[in-house]
Amino acid sequence: MNKTLSIPTSEHKSFWHRYLPALNWLSTYNRSLFSNDLLAGTIVAIMLVPQGMAYALLAGLPPEVGLYASIVPLVIYGLMGSSRSLAVGPVAMVSLLVASGLAPLAAGDIATFIQLALTLALIVGLIQTLMGILRIGFIVNFLSHPVLSGFTSAAAIIIGFSQLKHLLGISLPSTESFFAQTIAIIERLPQTNGVTASLAISAIAILLFFKYGTVPLLKRMGVGESWILPISKIGPLVAVVFGTTIVWWFELNQYAGVQIVGSVPAGAPSLSMPTADWGTWQLLLPTALAISLVGYMESISVAKSLASKRREKVEPDQELLALGMANLGAAFSGGYPVTGGISRSVVNFTAGARTGMASLITAGFILLTVLFLTPIFFFLPRAILGAIIIVAVVGMIDFQTFIKTWRYNKGDGISLLVTFLAVLTVGVETGILYGAGIAMVFYIWRSSQPHMAIVGRLDNSEIYRNILRHDVQTYPQVLTLRIDESLYFANTRALEEMVLGLIAERPQVKHFVLIGTAINFIDASALETLELLLDELRDSGVEFHLAAIKGPVLDKLETAGFTRHFGEDHIHLTTHDAMRKIGCVD
Amino acid sequence: MNKTLSIPTSEHKSFWHRYLPALNWLSTYNRSLFSNDLLAGTIVAIMLVPQGMAYALLAGLPPEVGLYASIVPLVIYGLMGSSRSLAVGPVAMVSLLVASGLAPLAAGDIATFIQLALTLALIVGLIQTLMGILRIGFIVNFLSHPVLSGFTSAAAIIIGFSQLKHLLGISLPSTESFFAQTIAIIERLPQTNGVTASLAISAIAILLFFKYGTVPLLKRMGVGESWILPISKIGPLVAVVFGTTIVWWFELNQYAGVQIVGSVPAGAPSLSMPTADWGTWQLLLPTALAISLVGYMESISVAKSLASKRREKVEPDQELLALGMANLGAAFSGGYPVTGGISRSVVNFTAGARTGMASLITAGFILLTVLFLTPIFFFLPRAILGAIIIVAVVGMIDFQTFIKTWRYNKGDGISLLVTFLAVLTVGVETGILYGAGIAMVFYIWRSSQPHMAIVGRLDNSEIYRNILRHDVQTYPQVLTLRIDESLYFANTRALEEMVLGLIAERPQVKHFVLIGTAINFIDASALETLELLLDELRDSGVEFHLAAIKGPVLDKLETAGFTRHFGEDHIHLTTHDAMRKIGCVD
To answer: What is this structure's pTM?
Structure first.
């Protein structure tokens, strides 16, 4: 009999149904599902066209790269993803990581930058695919919520400030440090292009109105539910049309110096070849790792949250595989790294996406856009795209979580703060590493001080409880200690010190009983400590007993020959058995 | 009432008695204690003279530096150490770290090397003192036993091979990599100096005879117990006298090319000044950190083991302070980094050292040696010192621990192997970092898959047990899950996946009960996951209950406002209470 409860997975499925989840829904696909998917896919496409271009610019890439990254990857994810409502494509966080990772390497050359972005997508794709195949998605567990929260807030601030130059129409020297950039912006405030700034402010007003104002307004006007969602999501499109029309009509690019997107090449993305050079790969590896993990985190968290709403299940390993393949698709179709975006996925879900078909439909619309609509974007002001980004990220700055975390647990609060400050000062990728490191150190530190309790007998019963919390009976010649954690290298020394300290304080003690009700595991360091402790206690004239050690733990100790060395007669089923054997009770 | 059991410490003592443990024994010091300490101190001095010179050569320093490091540091430790039998001074591991850390920086210049070694002792002293004051000695917990075992074995191999050139009398190009050095030795084997090699083999024979042969022999001869130990420990001294006499008598340094120690300056160590240059300090910091931790580990483990034999207690923080001050002493008296040595401490203890006075006596003898005996060492062959080192370290190569660890637990076995190989290939300090990293990753990986069990009711009792291990009653509309670990960022996702997976598999489930008997702590990430899970379960139409959450954990949840949000009526004292409330039992 299998004695271990394992997380339910899709391992029982056939190879194809497991790795190509689309087969699960394609066989029963029907007109009703399609009409749902069509609406959702269309709305997401409407959001994705301006967002894709904006995020590409944020990453430091030409706008069409953002659109290319929204075609092939979406098709691949639609077929391979285990989530039925995740909307994959360019997102803000990943774009920031691309920008901060590639800018120092490209040295201002846009062709190099594009090539590096392709290569980055390839490496991210390989890493995520490999993680999926090896089933090591668990390593995202190293990133705690406070670390992610600190990272997200700092990244949102960096992203927001990086767009200010577009919104104000000022040009900045390219500089890497966030603070240097902020100072440069403040110094150049007088150079603000009034027309550009007005356009930006109008765009922000439009975006905020659609984001917060439309839903209550349309409800009051009695507009049908099915219309409210699509209308509330076309804000970015309206801002784009508004800005483009005004600039084109008044020729503001010529007469007022408004920066525009300019010519965007028309046509489907062509086959692109990432660089296969080990030196380049090594340089890109840290950024690729950061994108792989951060992208997967963002994606899996929204996918899980949406799946649970319909009592569906996402498979973390399959998600890694699907995202990895989507990134490989991006690498060979002129794109850049992608992942599942939070806001677009929520819209996709709310608009009724029932299967990956919605993703395919979105990809189809984006393809039509790059084939036929690119001339429209010529007069699109960069300030409008900057406004779209700022409105998208401002909500990600999360001060409340900090307050809450700090109040709940100082260690977590410090992790959050260190990550936040490190991302702002040291850099985006290094910052998140610092955070993960600090969180691990805090955890090991805490678990290196496990909770231990001397226990005594409760009211002549067979129950033994903490002497500090209960009125229990103790016996001077016996020390009965319960440790409330598994024994492993970080806490084994605390146990040894506690035991030796207590024994040194109590010369009358002749027996020491270690109670294992909470010990699920004993690692090699702890095993060695137990052996050492056995010798040390023997030297002090104290007999060492073990009580209530769990079955699997005892089996392991037996294999290692410990129980024989320890003395089988000193290992007791329960604490009470131990006390009876010692002769304290009967 | 204090509800937490804390490790007994000396915090109740007065300032001076706490930080100067010598005051505790000085007040009651008497003739009997002194005669014990005198014998122990003398035997240790006899071992220390050749060992100190040998380890200094191993570190890449002139032999007198090893003697200087055996005077002031021993006085300081004797007064400040909380262990009464630890013998401080130059040791093999630390000397290897000094050699590997300084060789690339000194570029072959011996004056620079000595100055760097002083500075290293200063930084090690500051780090250890600071760790003692801040009470952060717990960070050595990051080094697990398997990692230390792998490190020690690899270091012993490196040390052993580094002495081969002295034993064979061949000269080698200075090279950093262990493998390159090994190959160079094999290539130059034909150049072996036969006389040097014969001396070395004779010395090894003498050392092995004294180490393993004398005790049984003297016992059989009926020699008194009190004489056996001193005699068995004079092997190195005999080897030194033997080698020196032969070389001096036959003038082998001139006629046979035997490498000798040469002139060792006479006189007490003078005040030395370490370098106070931030650039140098930064370069030395990694090595200093490694020495601080490895040195402290070696020291504290032997100190604790010896103290427990007399039911005494060592204070880890005071030990750090004492070792730190001893290293500061070394830095200002022409020495190099020191720590408590395992074999000399065991001898000190066995020979009867009762107080720190033994350490002071050893220091006195070493002082007399540098004042009057240095001319004797002129003809001392380096091969003899090499032989002393090899015999000392060969026992440190520990293959058995690897076999045992591998059998007991694969993860620990891999940590050991990775550390061992990394130390040999990548380098001594980097290797130990790799090992510590791997061990942490394995631990987090394991604890990211906590043991969970669905439980059911045992025989109409109030006891709920694992359904896979016991024949229990379950109720289809209720899922009752026990998690056997505290909830923190690394395992919180596993819990979420398990719960959502189980719920998705069981459409009939209307209630989910999480049992907290084993949860000692819930960190901010886990709190967020519980909140998320609450929403997700609500979306799935499942009510979330908590049962048997410990008092302190519940208090924390209350502070964070979680219990209110969760619903006080869904938090139950016991699993049975929860089942009663749900209406399954009465």
So the answer is: 0.76
